[in-house]
Design goal:
This protein has helices spanning 41-53, 58-65, 69-78, 94-98, 136-139, 149-153, 155-165, 167-173, 230-242, 251-262, 277-284, 307-323, 349-360, 364-369, 414-418, 472-485, 503-511, 525-533; strands at 12-37, 55-56, 83-86, 89-92, 109-122, 128-129, 183-207, 214-216, 270-271, 274-275, 297-301, 333-337, 403-409, 424-428, 438-443, 447-454, 463-469, 491-494. It has 537 residues and is α+β, with helices and mostly antiparallel strands.
Length: 537
């Protein structure tokens, strides 16, 4: 890993989104705060008068304020602790003089109060953080490494220093609206409590010159300021280094599977020496990449969770809906063949991507039952309700959603992590039957995306490269490819303990039949106007 940055660089490409767990601990902290207390107007005037006259009698004070004897006694009682009485003369004492230290023209009164809080601190840079409960899916995310073990051993001292330094930030974080003028007076005790984690969203970026990937934390809106995250950014870089994979010859068959299915533009990058990743990268980088009538397959760089590829998926969903607007039935399943990579899918954008596809392809059979209730909705295809350019409406009934199915090599805790996202998880035998770098997303008879994950050269972070297609011929070949993959022995990992549903048979039935698409005339020019006018760079 070369340069480490958390600032945006226009010369980089987002090739992945990864969420990581930042180790934290909560601490019970007892402390004192000092705050200004408002003096009564009369008391303030009395102290200012005494400061300028040295001393006065009760009679002098009565004449100055126009008070009677009882009122003078009340005022002097309010100034108790700040004045001395010697015989019949009244003057400021040392405490009264100190009230003018901050402002010679006006006395200030400082109150000291005790406070106690339970505050979280991350254990890398020791910044205060807001700790919240995380989901089962999030608990399976990778943890950022703690490289400074000595700092952990001295965590109490580090937290005390951070508490003093960041006290104003902690007040803002905890919304102490009535205590904004308080300053930290002392820390009386600090006791470590339970360990927690905070999720850090990482944008994994690759320079356009094809160098090494760097982490970017601009999306961490709830995190500390950039100058306080340098150690965290460094830990993110270490995590990306740990995700490096070797460039092995076994990658070649994965490219063959992808090119044989996609054909078209991708075939031009097939050479006698194998798939030319560098030429592919140089051709695709910086392109806007939009679907057109004559371009139904888009080459892409980056994971399907990357921001630009999320946009392309939305365009593909809308286009597929137009192609199959006359279809009597829609797809029932969303099939995702997972590459055997350690941190694939470790992002909150994975469930977002699944939900995007589910919202775009509602099961047609169930949709027809409620068609009478949606007669006023403009349908742009099976299960797609138009609510504006690039937007799909969320279906109201979960029973009409595509059932997402994940295919993966078995890993411990796999079902616990991805069980919140996928309806079923089927495991296979691993790299002995399929290349671990290969990824396939298929919505039967609608859409396909294929990626191969491999470093640009040597050992490095796996860079996804491939294509998204709604070309009916490509989708049909993807059915055949999935059928080949399904010849592997599959075992149900989720639902755990449920063997009543033969998911493997359901999937085989789904990919065994393809539907007849429409024609290019079914694509509305109005819908594709943005694509036709987009400028390739």
């Amino acid at each position: 890993m070369t340069d480490v940055t958390d600032s945006h660089d226009d010369l980089t490409i987002e090739i992945d989104r990864l969420d990581a767990l930042l180790p934290c601990r909560r601490f019970h902290i007892q402390f004192k705060v000092a705050a200004e207390s408002t003096l009564s107007l009369t008391t303030e005037f009395l102290l200012r008068l005494l400061r300028h006259t040295d001393d006065l009698t009760d009679q002098d004070i009565a004449e100055f304020f126009g008070f009677n004897e009882r009122e003078v006694a009340y005022v002097l009682e309010g100034a108790e602790g700040f004045i001395n009485r010697k015989r019949d003369r009244i003057s400021l004492n040392a405490a009264g003089d100190q009230r003018f230290d901050l402002d010679p023209s006006r006395p200030r009164l400082i109150n000291v109060a005790e406070r106690e809080i339970l505050q979280g601190f991350e254990l890398i840079s020791f910044n205060p953080v807001k700790v919240e409960r995380i989901s089962s899916f999030a608990r399976g995310l990778p943890e950022l490494p703690i490289v400074d073990a000595e700092a952990i051993e001295n965590s109490d001292q580090k937290v005390k220093e951070a508490f003093r330094r960041r006290f104003s930030d902690i007040k803002a974080m905890r919304a102490w609206r009535n205590e904004t003028d308080e300053t930290l007076y002392s820390i009386d005790s600090l006791t470590g409590s339970d360990r927690r984690d905070v999720i850090v969203p990482i944008s994994v970026r690759l320079p356009e010159n094809g160098g090494e990937v760097v982490p970017n934390l601009e999306g961490w809106t709830s995190g500390p300021s950039s100058q306080d995250t340098l150690d965290i950014v460094s830990a993110c870089a270490t995590l990306l280094q740990a995700s490096a994979v070797p460039k092995v010859p076994e990658t070649a068959p994965a490219y063959d599977l992808m090119v044989d299915c996609m054909q078209g533009q991708l075939a031009s990058f097939r050479t006698p020496a194998g798939f030319d990743r560098r030429a592919f990268f140089d051709r695709v980088k910086g392109r806007k990449g939009v679907f057109r009538k004559e371009r139904l397959t888009l080459p892409v760089i980056g994971s399907l969770c990357a921001e630009e590829n999320q946009r392309r998926l939305r365009e593909a969903i809308r286009l597929a809906g137009q192609f199959y607007r006359k279809a009597k039935e829609g797809p029932d399943l969303l099939l995702w063949w997972k590459p055997d990579l350690p941190h694939w899918g470790c992002s909150s954008h994975l469930p977002v991507t699944v939900e995007l596809l589910q919202a775009g392809f509602v099961r047609q059979g169930d949709l027809n039952k409620t068609a009478n209730n949606k007669a006023d909705a403009k349908s742009t295809g099976p299960g797609i309700q138009s609510i504006g350019p690039g937007v799909v409406d969320e279906p109201e009934d979960d029973e009409r959603l595509l059932k997402p199915v994940l295919f993966t090599r078995y890993r411990p805790r796999l079902a616990r992590q991805f069980g919140e996202v996928f309806e079923a998880i089927l495991t296979h035998d691993g790299p002995s039957t399929i290349q671990p770098t290969f990824e396939l997303l298929l919505v039967p008879s609608r859409l396909v995306a294929i990626l191969v994950h491999a470093p640009m050269s040597g050992n490095g972070y796996p860079i996804p490269m491939g294509a998204i297609s709604v070309d009916p011929a490509v989708v049909e070949r993807a059915h055949g490819l999935m059928q080949r993959l399904l010849t592997n022995r599959l075992t149900v990992a989720r639902p755990e303990g449920d063997r009543s549903t033969d998911w493997a048979a359901i999937v085989r039935d789904a990919v065994g039949v393809t539907q007849e698409p429409g024609t290019l005339d079914d694509i509305e020019d109005e819908e594709m106007r943005q694509g036709e006018g987009a400028r390739e760079t």
